[in-house]
Design goal:
The protein has 14 helices and twelve strands. The chain is an alpha+beta fold. It folds into four domains: 108 residues; 97 residues, PAS domain (Beta-Lactamase, 2-Layer Sandwich), CATH 3.30.450; 72 residues, Orthogonal Bundle (Helix Hairpins); 168 residues, Histidine kinase-like ATPase, C-terminal domain (Heat Shock Protein 90), CATH 3.30.565.10. A five-stranded antiparallel sheet has the order 2-1-5-4-3, with helices on both faces. It has a five-stranded mixed sheet with strand order 7-9-10-12-11, covered by helices on one side. The chain has a two-stranded antiparallel sheet with strand order 6-8. A hairpin with a 3-residue loop joins strand 11 and strand 12.
Amino acid sequence: MLESGPPTRRRRADRSVPPEPPLPIHQRLHYRLVLVYSILLIAVVSLNNLEFLSPWLWTALLCGASVAIAAVTTRHLVTRPLTDLARGAERIVAGEEADIDEARQDELGMLARSITRLSDQLGERLQQSQQEAALLQTILDGMSEGVVVCDIEAQVMLVNPVARQLFGMGDGAVAGKHLLEVYRSPALKDAMDEAVVTGEPITRELVLRRGNEPVHLVLAVAALRRPDGIHGAVAVLHDITALRRLERVRRDFVANVSHELRTPLATITGYAETLLSGAVELDPVSREFIETIERHGRRLSVMVADLLMLARIEASGEGTARVPLRISDVVVDVLDDVQPLANERGINLRIYRLSEIPPVLADARRMTQVLRNLVENAITYTDDGGKVSLRAFEVKGGSRVCIEVKDTGIGIEAQHLPRIFERFYRVDEGRSRDAGGSGLGLALVKHMVLTMGGDIEVDSKPGKGTTFRVIVDIATGAEEDLPVEHAEALRQ
C-alpha cells in the first residue's frame, strides 16, 4: 500500500497556488440572512391554512425577503466591484498589470479611472527612475576616477569598479560594510568624517600601497546632502601615480645634469677670472669678450646652484624641521646681505616693529633665504631712489604671522601673477637677464615656504609696486626660551 507524502509537503504544494481570500463578514451575514428567510418563507407557504396567518407575520416575512433581496443586490452592485478594485490596487502595488473595469459611469467608475491614471503615472515614474539609475550606473562604470559613497556612520553605500581596483576589493559585496573593513585607510576615513562634520569640500593627497609600489591619489570628498541634512559623504579618487613618477624622473634628471655642470662651469669661470686679473696682456676687444664669458659663467653657476637646491628641497619630502624662531633675528642677517645693494641703488629700506612679533615655527636657514630672495627682488625691480619696506603682523586670530615685503617698483601685470612662481618664468625678460637672475628665485621661495607649513601670496599693480606675503605658524608657548637680539635696532 502506497503512502502519500507527509502533510508538510502537501501544505507546501498548496501554498504555490494563492487561496481565494475569505469573504468579508458583512457578505457572510448577507448570505446567512437570505438562507434563513428563504427557509422560513418556504415553511410558511407550505402550510394549508394560510388564512390563519397574522398580518404582522406577513409583514415580517415581506420585510425579511426585501432585506435579503437588497443584500444580494448590494453584493452584485457594490461589494463585488469594490473587491475587484481592491484586488486591482494590490496588483498595482506588486508591480503587475491590473485589468480594472472603467466602463461604469457612477462613482465606482470614477474611482476605477482614478486608480488607472495613478497606475500609469507610477509606471512612468518607475520607468524614469530606472532609466536614471541605469544612466548613473553607466557613468560610474565609465569613469576613470574611483568613487566611494558612505553614509553618516561610514557604512559603504556604493563603490564603482575603478575604486574596487584601486583598493583591491575584488568582486565581493561591500555595501553595508564599514569603510575600514573594506579598506584600512585611516586617512580616507578621516577625510570622509571631516566632510560630514564640517560640510565643506575636502581635498588632499593619499599614498596607498599596491604590493611594493606606492599609489598616489588625489582625494576629493564632498558631503552627501539631502533636504533634511547631511546623510554621508562622496569621495572621488584620481590616480596620479604616473604623474608623480614622471616628476621624480624629471627631478632626478635635473639634479644629475646640474651636478655634472658644476665642474665645467667652475673651470670656465676660474679661467676667465684669471685672464681678467692680468695673467696675460689683453687688448680691449679680448677683455670685453672674456668679461662676457665670466659674467654669463657666473649666471649659469647661480642657476645650477638654484636647481640643485630646488632638487634637494623636493627630494627631502613635504616637510622640514621647524623650530621656534624670531623674525627679528632673521631680518638682521638679511639686512647685512642686502643693505649694500640698497645703498648702491639709493633704495630706502625700512623695517617696521618686528621685535613685537612672537616667535614662529620655521627653519632658520630657509626662512633667511626666503626673505633674502624677496628683498633682493624688491630692490632689483624698484627704480633708483624708491622704497622697500618689511613688516610683520599677526593674522587669523593670533595663530599665524604674516611677513610682508613691499616695494614701490615697476609692478607686475595681472596676467603674469598666476605664473610668477613657475620655474624659469620671467615677467621682464631683458631686465631679469641684466640683473643676473636665474628665473628660479620665486620657485625656490614658494617651495621653501611650503616645506615650513606656510603659505605665500602676492599682490601687484603695474607702476605702483608689488607686495609679497609669507604666512607661517606661531610657536605657541616657546617665547620664554628664545633670546631677544637686535630688538632695539629694529624698532622704529
